[in-house]
Amino acid sequence: MIRNRSELRIPAARTHDETTVADRIRIVCVDDHRVVREGIAAVLGRQSDMDVVAAGATGFEAVRLYRVHRPDVVVMDLQMPGMGGLAATEMIRAEWAGARIVVLTMSSGDEDIYRAVEAGAAAYLLKDAILDDLARVVRQVHNGSNRLPADVLRIPASRSADDALTRREVGVLELVGQGLSNKDVAAALGIAHETAKVHVKNILRKLGVTNRTAAVTTALKRGILRVF
C-alpha cells in the first residue's frame, strides 16, 4: 500500500501468468529524480513476477520504507540529497543483515564500487544499463546471487586501508580542485600551512600521482571527487 506522496503508485498493467501475489518479488525503489524513479518502477512493475510496493526519494525514506514494507529487494540510487544510498544501505543492512540491495549509479569509479561493496550491496548497476539488465539482476539478487563482477569483489581484499583518503584529505582535495593553494587551503580549513602541505603530500602518495592537477583528475575518475 502506498503511504505518502513521496511513494509511487504503480499501475496494475502487467502480463498475468500463474505467478501468485505471494510469489512475486516485492520491491522498494529509491531515487531522488522523479523521472528515473518512475521509469524504474514502470520497468519492474510490468514484470509478472514483481510488485513495486513503494518508492522514495532519499536515503531516509529508503530506511523508513524498508521498516514498513520489508521488501525482498531494494533498488537504491547512490547519490541523493541528505542521506545517500551508501549510508542508507549500511543502515538497512545493520538492522536486517539479510537485506538485498541493488545499488544504481551513473558512476563507474572504483571508489563508488568499493564503498558499495563495503556497505553490503548485493549488486552494482550503472543506470545506462537499467532497461536491459535491471529486472534480470533483481531476480538474481532475490534468488541469493551477488551480481558483483569478480574484479569488483576483489577490490576490498586488494585495497590497503593505507590507500584510502581520510575525510580531511578528501576535504583538502576538494579545495585543491577549486584551485586553492596550500596556503589558501590552510586558511579555509583553519589549519597550519605546513599541515596543509603534509595533507597534499599524502594525497599525492595515496593516489600514485606527482602533482595536484593529476590528483584531482584521478580523484574524479575514481569517484572520490564529483562534478556537480
User: What is the CA-based Rg, rounded?
Assistant: 20 Å
The helix fraction, in percent, is 40-55%
Shape: elongated
Order of helices and strands: EHEHEHEHEHHHHHHH
| Mean pLDDT rating | 82
Keyword list:
about 230 residues, alpha/beta, 5-stranded parallel beta sheet, 5 strands, about 50% helix, elongated, disordered N terminus
Describe the structure.
The protein is α/β, with parallel strands linked by helices. It is built from 11 helices and 5 strands. The protein has helices at residues 34-45, 59-69, 85-95, 110-119, 130-142, 150-153, 155-158, 167-177, 182-189, 193-207, 212-222, and strands at residues 25-30, 50-56, 73-77, 101-105, 123-126. A 5-stranded parallel β-sheet has the order 2-1-3-4-5, with helices on both faces. Helix 3 links the parallel strand 3 (73-77) and strand 4. Helix 2 runs parallel beside helix 3 (85-95). The radius of gyration is 20 Å and the shape is elongated. It starts with 24 loop residues before the first strand and ends in a 6-residue tail after the last helix.
Summary of the model, kept short:
With 228 residues, the protein is an alpha/beta fold.
SSE order and pairing:
Blueprint: E1 25-30, H1 34-45, E2 50-56, H2 59-69, E3 73-77, H3 85-95, E4 101-105, H4 110-119, E5 123-126, H5 130-142, H6 150-153, H7 155-158, H8 167-177, H9 182-189, H10 193-207, H11 212-222
Parallel strand pairs: 1-2, 1-3, 3-4, 4-5
Helix pairs in contact: 2-3, 8-10, 8-11, 9-10, 10-11
